[in-house]
Amino acid sequence: MLEGLHPSIMRPYPLLAGLLAAGPLAAQPALTTGTPLSGTVSAKDTARFTLRADSASVVRIKVDQQPGNVAVRLMGPKNTVIGAVNATSAGYEELHLVTRESGTHQLQVTAGDSTGGAFRVSLLMNEKFAADPKRHTDQLLAPWNRPDGPGAAVAVWRGGKTVFAKAYGMANLGYDIPFTVSTPTNIGSTSKQFTAFAVMLLVEEGKLSLDDDVRKHIPELKDFGQTVTVRNLITHTTGYRELYNSLVLTGRRIDESDYVGREEYIPLVQRQPALQNAPGAEFNYNNTAFGLAAMIVSRVSKMPFDEFMAKRVFGPVGMTHTRVRADVRVPVKGATVGYSRSDKGVWRDLGDLGGSMGAGGIYTTLGDLQLWAQHLANPKVGTKASIAQMMTPFTLKDGKSTSYGFGLFVDTQNGQKRVQHGGADVSHRSMLALYPDLDAGITVQSNDGAFDSSIAFRLAEVFFPELAPKKAASTAAFDASKYDVKKFDEFAGQYPLDAAPAFVLTFSRSGDTLFTQATGQQKIRMVPTSDSSFALQGVVASVEFVRDAAKKVTAAILVQNGARQRATRQAATAAAAAWTPSAADLTAMSGRYFSDELETFWEFVVVNGKLVARQRRSADMTLSPTAKDTFNGGAITVQLERDRIGQVIGFYVNVARSRDIRFERVR
Asked: CB count, 10 Å around CB of 261?
């Protein structure tokens, strides 16, 4: 459920992966399948290998660290990074990607830390992408087709018939149980549509109204002086804090399976001093809202939520292998175990998120999800009118569409309407994508925390010809070498994603080099593909800029894995100048701070000339200045608060979906 954007196609590497410089190609050992090569690198070494690959070839490379810590990157024929990884300090590193050009590629192995070490590199796959969709799927999911790691499963259907269904890898490593097409697995936030559907059943029966004040059903919630409705809950437009993002600030290790209970939703809202936005004014993806929606379903129906879903939804639809896991301590028979690799390269079972019922928490199978998709087209319970409402994007108060209905994203893929929702629990991943006009759909599941479930969109393009990308003739004829880079200045600036305003894309130019940078991540070089579109180097992604009727640049569209994410341009006056605090400035910020809302302490200290934030259960976080009195620490932004004489008396912190949480200085 802790969702975000994802990298190109597979294995662990950050979104908008960083571009690394490469040296000239020289005589180097050639990699061939079936013949491992060995080497050693120290802190300043680079071991280089070559391989020949066609464009649109699937290349899979494994590097065993024996022992040591190495980083790996693959350079294309034009000396640009097309893939890189440094996921663990022990075990193996693996690259699995699709090439863009034919020619000699260079694999570079460097020290992953100050020591480096010995390694062995193996070319596991180097073959042209298969035209046959089934073989194509096998190629993309090859890293999960193994007896010693977690797996994945895929189902594709059209016209009421299963086109393809296959599972790969293991469901349970402790007992050597394989992942099968009938293995129940945690679908994370893909569950949200089921909660929304439950709400709609009660609306149809007249027991609930979408325009009800949520406090009518949960009077314990705080009255903020503005009405938050049931409709706001299931469209992510409440203004409430997001549970998991907020708890991270208290030192709760969600990534290490710290327990979270459903009883925490109401106190979180009660302690919130004000709404983050007016209800209906902003889309802010929010697990708190769906957790509360499940409570309302339970209170109105006078039935536990998991029981309601079993009797009123799963049973009538015929989903006999689906259940809500109301208590994460109660096992689900025959289900997958979710795994994430540690820094040491070891697979770990971290369990499921606690308190996720309503926002997630459903275990189901490929077959049951296909039944659900068919039910949405021809409902066995509920009405087509309710389902049509669920698939209608919500419109904000300013008239902008959120591209989100009730528990479902509604968008397009290469011109075809798409209704979809992904899911991510601690170590489970899921995607369900429907194409209503094609009477088709696809679902992908995995019990590997590093799996990128948006691969479902790519697979849909090979199974459904109508989704095949269409190349514009103007793009094919564009000569990037003749592009006047000074024209890029009209695009420069900051563009927060509409669906996640705390995630900002910043575009800039340095001489002849064009850059984009996502919040908390490295700068990435871009190359023009038209006068208003650019490809990101080292990542399978691109950006298109949007102009209004007056030719003014108003937005950017991030295109990645078939998804199109709109980012509205931030007014130039809102962007502050760069700021470099002095040593005295940093010392004056040092101290201990307390958040009454979260009931937790933070401490600011200066380490090696940098401001560092400490919380007793979290790792130290270095804060980098971005603008006057503003610091960034990865996904966290800190804004200092000063009194009338300029003394720092507190700060406000933003973390993705929870904003403006105040900490007051106590010493």
From this structure: 10
First to last CA, the chain: 37
Spatial neighbors of 484 by CB under 8 A, at least 6 apart, are none
Q: Are residues 638 and 511 in the same domain?
A: no
Q: How many domains does the chain have?
A: 4
Both 547 and 479 in one domain: the answer is yes
Closest CA to 109 of 76, 74, 78, 143: 74
Mean pLDDT is highest, among 40-44, 480-484, 593-597, for 593-597
**pLDDT at 498 (0 to 100):** 66
Half-sphere exposure of 578 (CA within 13 A, CB side): 2
Residue 635 identity (one-letter amino acid): A
Ordered DSSP codes for 128-140 = EPPSSHHHHHHHH
Could you give the angle at the alpha carbon of 327 between the alpha carbons of 326 and 331, nearest 5°? Answer: 105
C-alpha gyration radius of the chain: 25
Both 651 and 539 in one domain: the answer is: no
Of these ranges, 129-138, 473-482, 493-502, 503-512, the one predicted with the greatest mean pLDDT is 129-138
Report how far residue 452's alpha carbon sits from residue 5's, in angstroms, rounded to the nearest whole number.
9
In the chain, count H helices and then E strands: 14, 37
Give pLDDT, residue 595: 98
Tokens of 144: 């999960």
Q: What three-state secondary structure class fits 5?
A: coil
Is 385 found in the same domain as 324? yes
pLDDT of residue 337 exceeding 50: yes
CA-based nearest residue to 656, from 631, 636, 640, 626:
636
Give yes or no for a contact between 402 and 188, defined as CB atoms under 8 angstroms apart.
no
- Examine residue 152 and state whether it is found in any structural domain, yes or no: no
- The reply to whether 569 and 599 lie within a common domain is no
pLDDT band for position 473 (cuts 50, 70, 90): very low
For residue 105, which of 60, 43, 38 has the smallest C-alpha distance? 60
Cα–Cα distance, 293 to 232 (Å, whole number): 10
If asked whether residues 553 and 605 sit together in one domain, one would say: no
| Spatial distance between the Cα atoms of 68 and 91, rounded to a whole number of angstroms | 9
Task: Check the CA dihedral 96-97-102-104 and report its sign.
Answer: negative
Helix/strand/coil for 577: coil
Residue 400 has pLDDT above 80, yes or no: yes
Asked whether the predicted pLDDT for residue 603 surpasses 80, the reply is yes
Beta bridge partners of 423: 430
- Between CA 302 and CA 335 the distance in angstroms is 29
Question: Taking the mean position of all CA atoms in its chain, how far away is CA 90?
Answer: 25
Domain interval for residue 498: 473-574
| 429 contacts 453 by C-beta, under 8 angstroms | yes
Residues 99-114 have pLDDT tens digits of: 888 999 999 999 988 8
CA distance 336 to 427: 10
Cβ pair 583, 590 in contact under 8 A? no
SS3 category, 339: strand
Encode pLDDT of 132-172 as tens digits. Answer: 999 999 999 999 999 999 999 999 999 999 999 999 999 99
Residue 291 neighbours by CB under 8 Å, 6+ apart: 243, 262, 265, 355, 356, 357, 358, 359
Q: Are residues 206 and 342 in the same domain?
A: yes
pTM, 2 dp: 0.86
